[in-house]
């Protein structure tokens, strides 16, 4: 485990610990892979989809921290993104104080996902380096390990916004025809790219703040 953590945290190559830990390059590589396999056994808990209880907790936390109610996820959207319903952008030219304040608040909530990945890179230096494996599954296991461990730490320290209620919600499997799936995809695409919904959401957020 010491070798695996040093590989992850410091980005050491397997052959750099052969003298310090009396471990060959092959054993060092295998210890990293076996460690990752053990950690991702917890992925069903710490990388699972949020329950409705979790989502409401994330809503409340996002509203408390950033002031945007009903927002889930990143708000990393500026002028380069299209005017779609899924994107909430600030104003490139604020026309009044409300729009200016909204743009300032939106900028303060920017790039949550990018900041999270920077934190992961700062904690796990192996993510700053080119991939050493040509196998997609091994690269996936390594990335999941670098995500699961901080999630476990956050929960142990009591910093998680949504408590882990350990409730597995039943999933209903409904069979749809090919035509139904095509219609549903077309409907979702129209809803995603709806400019009027984007303008309405932007206007509502301006008034909310």
Secondary structure blueprint with pairings:
Blueprint: H1 2-10, H2 25-39, H3 43-46, H4 52-66, H5 97-108, H6 112-123, H7 136-156, H8 178-192, H9 195-208
Short note summarizing the structure:
The protein is mainly α and 209 residues long.
Descriptive account of the structure:
The chain is mainly α. It has a domain at 1-49 and 123-166. Helices cover 56% and strands 0% of the residues. It has nine helices and no strands. It has helices at 2-10, 25-39, 43-46, 52-66, 97-108, 112-123, 136-156, 178-192, 195-208. Helix 1 crosses helix 2 and helix 2 crosses helix 7 (136-156). The radius of gyration is 22 Å and the shape is extended. The N and C termini lie far apart (49 Å).
* Backbone CA Rg: 22 Å
As a percent range, the share of helical residues equals 55-70%
Report the β-strand fraction as a percent range: under 5%
Protein structure class: mainly alpha
Mean pLDDT: 79
Order of helices and strands: HHHHHHHHH
Instruction: Report the end-to-end length measured between terminal Cα atoms.
Output: 49 Å
Figure out the total of helices: 9
Total number of beta strands: 0
